[in-house]
Specification:
heterotrimer, A alpha/beta, B mainly alpha, C mainly alpha, B: mainly alpha, MetI-like fold, 11 helices, C: mainly alpha, 13 helices
């Protein structure tokens, strides 16, 4: 009881003090809250009030996946303003689009099988080819990609495959099979890494066993799991991000790698080589899509058209070392670049001979389960 | 008896030295490496400030540092005020074990649980994630830390001081400003310093509730470390260590708040 | 009435904040854990116990057991190393104590991620330790020190050892040295004195320190990822995967409550033990 007296005996004074503290609090909250209002209330659907202002589109892309000056140049040329949002993973942007019903974005960069999943949910607008004359720059083969024949809801931005990336000076044979990764000879044990993202963690075993990279058969998936658990014993680590530097440092000799990322290793050490195993591999395609809920469809198409210019596509090849389905751009590439990074020279036929990754729909749960079992095994 | 005592102490002291070696070895190694021209852990290429230069040009890391300062500063200011009010309330107005336990929860709850709970909550509200969402999240545990430290300080001194002041005719606000506040100020500052440090270094909750493209320093470091080891991380850790030690020493000198560490 | 408004102003903001940003989010994920996941992420509001059944599937149980094992070993090592450390500090000359204690806490004020990263540099195949051992001719092939359970445990121990030492120090420091001396004078050998007098009287510090190390070790996902190379899955990794990768929020939420219930049981045990100890102490007096 006594303890309370100190503050109770003069309530008026107490009040003043408390109010003083609260004012400080409110001031601080306002200062801290200001950005909250800018960002938090961002529901571009309400942008209608500002229709008088120039059109503004919101795009979402991976960080550093397009030329830095692209947005400024696009705005200067078309008068359309662009706000750039970034996502780190496909899962993240798909989660956002599903949660918002696709509102809030006008163009989104997302990998093919995720684009297919978004389209299956009715979240994507149909691509109007008349508004994208630069589609003519692309290889005619892009209309054959399995997840979106005819490019009805997605426009390809980059493409490539997955294979084995290895040190020719440390591996004394030429790897040709996924089994060289999964059941390596003695000298490679502990010198191998595999990708950790679910589709690419499963891919080597699916292909090695002669299954589809999109199989939903529980029997086949059980075999895939067993093979991957067996292979885990020989791994140095699962690694999605540093496998090429491990090759450069000699910590790893042979890794499962995306073609473009293997090129990062080759850039640092020319003794590194890339090979697509004889059992075949995947075809991955990063695409641009327009949410059906976008209120700036025309501007969104204009943006995609701009990105399909050869100079944008060749920037990607020269700086990110990825292949692009842009025929005009690929034909302009300096041949010495392809000499240094041979996989840049893969033709559309060679790429399309690989199996395009598709959305597996309900079987995604089975995939998650198998991946967890593999990662949790000891 | 005496020699036996000395012998035991000596064994303990050896243990103590080994523990400090364990705690400081890795840190000292990073500091030394940060001055290595080669940037390699295994070969010495001569003394160099090269990696500090690299660091100064690493705008992504500098931006992340600024983001962290904003998050830690904002959450510290708010939680210093709310936490102090809460401490006074719990110490002087309402005595309740249940409330005490409740305020303790943010300190002990596993960070990953709080992280996914807040992420779910924000996305239910369709809130766009950004620096302020990290700030709101950090205030949760910072309130608890500030309140705990201010309470300790409050419990040290006798409320009769306040009563005496008012018996002598001082108004309550005067009493608060002249007696209570100066007495608990070291506690508030210590709490704020702790809150700032925790918030500045917090990774898990920030990782889940950050918006894309606005990483805090720990998130940026995490992606740097995941994308390979670059020697400018060594330089960065040396600078962070230097700043923390200086700020702790300054704080200690200023407020005589020993024992808060 | 005025007392009520006073309490409202003092406690209102803090408690309101905790209700909005702690209680409501926790209730939210608790309710999610009883719903079904949508085919493309998101939550379908349809009651199911599937997520909790999954919690007891052999797969998830194994991950839980791995995490428990790692957390228990880490806590045990921290106690073994931390107790003598705290004891040495508490029995050091008084003018040294603050400095010694400060030195234990200081690493804590540097970035946690950087401290973890330091162990990558140390344990790497091309790392400092391997290099050093090869120079000395002790080994000829680099050892695989990184990317295994050992590396995870070292990383956790390094991160959380101060959490063990600090509470231990405060309980040992409070100990009356005369008690120990009395036992010694009565002819008790030092070890016996330790186990019958010192340890029981500092048990509260032991429990508190153990909880401070155990809880963050159990839910950690950064250390297993960076130092474990993704080859050991801990429950934190699983929750992170379910939330950010598989976007299966209901099952991730159920796992989070699995972790929460372990923590809750530990805290209840602690409260019970503390009560017992205090009663015991009161009786002894």
């Amino acid at each position: 009881m006594r303890q309370r007296l100190g503050l109770r005996s003069n309530r008026q004074g107490f009040w003043l003090t408390a109010v003083f503290l609260l004012i400080v609090l409110v001031l601080v909250a306002c200062g801290g809250g200001a950005p909250a209002e800018e960002g938090g209330e961002e529901a571009p659907a309400e942008g209608a009030e500002e229709e008088a202002a120039p059109t503004k589109i919101v795009i979402s892309n991976w960080d550093a996946y397009m030329p830095e000056d692209l947005l400024d140049n696009f705005t200067a040329e078309t008068g359309i303003e662009v706000e750039l949002a970034l996502h780190a993973t496909n899962e993240e942007i798909v989660g956002k689009l599903v949660a918002s019903g696709g509102r809030g974005f006008d163009v989104v960069f997302v990998t093919g099988q995720f684009a297919q999943a978004l389209n299956n949910q009715g979240l994507l607008a149909e691509i109007n080819h008349d508004l994208i004359p630069n589609m003519a720059n692309l290889y005619p083969e892009v209309s054959e990609i399995a997840f979106d024949p005819g490019n009805t809801f997605s426009v390809p931005y980059t493409w490539g495959t997955t294979g084995l990336c290895y040190r020719t000076d440390l591996v004394d044979f030429e790897p040709t099979s996924w089994f060289d990764l999964l059941r390596p000879p003695e000298e490679l044990v502990g010198k191998i890494t595999m990708l950790q993202t679910d589709r690419w963690l499963l891919l080597p075993a699916q292909k090695a066993l002669g299954f589809s990279a999109n199989t939903t058969d529980p029997e086949e998936m059980a075999q895939v799991r067993d093979l991957l658990i067996e292979a885990k014993q020989n791994l140095l680590a699962y690694d999605d991000t540093t496998f090429y530097s491990r090759l450069v440092s000699g910590e790893a000799y042979l890794v499962e790698a995306w073609d473009g990322w293997c090129n990062y290793g080759i850039a640092e050490n020319p003794d590194i080589a890339f090979v697509v195993p004889e059992e075949g591999s995947d075809l991955w395609v990063d695409t641009m899509v327009i949410p059906a809920a976008s209120e700036n469809q025309e501007a969104a198409h204009a943006f995609i058209n701009y990105v399909l210019r050869p100079e944008v596509a060749s920037w990607v090849v020269e700086n990110i070392l990825y292949k692009v389905p842009n025929q005009v751009a690929m034909e302009q590439i300096d041949p010495t670049l392809i000499e240094t990074f041979p996989n840049l020279g893969m033709s559309p036929e060679e790429l399309l001979a690989q199996e395009a990754l598709l959305d597996v729909g309900e079987a995604q749960e089975l995939y998650t389960e198998i991946v967890t079992e593999v990662l949790a095994s000891e | 008896m005496r020699s036996k005592f000395l012998k035991r102490v000596r064994a303990l002291d050896v243990h103590l030295v080994l523990v400090y070696l364990f705690l400081y070895g890795p840190i000292v190694m990073l500091i030394v490496l940060s001055f290595n021209e080669l940037g390699l852990p295994t070969a010495w290429g001569g003394f160099s400030l090269k990696w500090y230069g690299e660091l100064a040009r690493n705008t992504a890391l500098l931006n992340a540092g600024i983001n962290s300062l904003i998050v830690a500063g904002g959450s510290t200011l708010v939680s210093a005020v709310i936490g102090t009010l809460l401490a006074i309330g719990l110490e002087r107005a309402v005595r309740s074990t249940l409330l005490d336990a409740f305020v303790f929860v943010p300190m002990i709850i596993p960070d990953i649980v709080l992280a996914i709970a807040l992420l779910s909550f924000y996305s239910l509200l369709k809130m766009r994630l950004g620096l302020y969402s990290i700030m709101l999240s950090h205030i949760v545990f910072n309130i608890a830390f500030v309140a705990a430290i201010v309470r300790t300080r409050l419990s040290y001194f006798d409320p009769s001081l306040e009563e005496a002041s008012m018996d002598l005719g001082a108004t309550q606000i005067k009493t608060f400003l002249k007696i209570t506040l100066p007495l608990i100020l070291p506690g508030i500052m210590a709490g704020a310093l702790l809150a700032f440090t925790i918030s500045f270094d917090e990774f898990v909750i920030a990782f889940f509730t950050a918006g894309p493209g606005q990483p805090t320093l720990p998130i940026q470091i995490y992606s740097m470390v995941r994308f390979g080891v670059t020697p400018d991380v060594n330089a960065l850790s040396t600078i962070i260590l230097f700043i923390s030690i200086t700020s702790i020493l300054v704080a200690q000198r200023l407020s005589g708040m020993r024992g808060v560490l | 009435m005025k007392k009520f408004t006073q309490q409202l102003v003092l406690l209102g903001p803090g408690l309101a904040w905790l209700v909005v940003f702690l209680v409501i989010p926790l209730v939210l994920i608790l309710s999610y854990s009883f719903f079904r996941r949508g085919p493309y992420g998101g939550v379908v509001y349809e009651f199911t116990l599937k997520n909790y059944k999954q919690l007891f599937s052999p797969l998830v149980l194994r991950v839980f057991l791995t995490s428990l094992r790692i957390a228990v070993i880490t806590t045990g090592l921290a106690l073994l190393i931390g107790y003598p450390t705290a004891y040495a500090i508490a029995t050091a000359a008084p003018q040294w104590r603050t400095t010694l204690l400060g030195l234990v806490a200081l690493p804590f004020w540097t970035s946690y991620l950087i401290r973890t990263y330091a162990w990558i540099v140390l344990l790497n195949r091309e790392g400092v330790i391997n290099h050093f051992l090869m120079r000395l001719g002790i080994i000829h092939e680099p050892l695989g020190l990184l990317y295994n359970e050992f590396a995870i445990i070292i990383g956790l121990l390094y991160g959380y050892l101060p959490f063990m030492i600090l509470p231990l120090y405060s309980s040992i420091e409070r100990l009356n040295p005369e008690l120990r001396e009395a036992a010694a004078d009565l002819g008790a050998p030092p070890l016996k004195t330790f186990f019958t007098v010192t340890l029981p009287l500092t048990l509260q510090g032991v429990i508190a320190g153990s909880i401070f190390v155990f809880v963050p070790s159990l839910g950690n996902f950064v250390v297993p990822e960076l130092l474990g190379g993704g080859r050991r899955l801990m429950i934190g990794n699983l929750i992170q995967n379910r939330f950010l990768k598989a976007r299966d929020w209901p099952s991730g939420a159920a796992m989070a409550f699995g972790v929460m219930s372990i923590v809750l049981i530990l805290l209840l045990l602690q409260a019970w033990a503390t009560n017992r100890l205090q009663e015991g102490g009161a009786n002894a007096e």
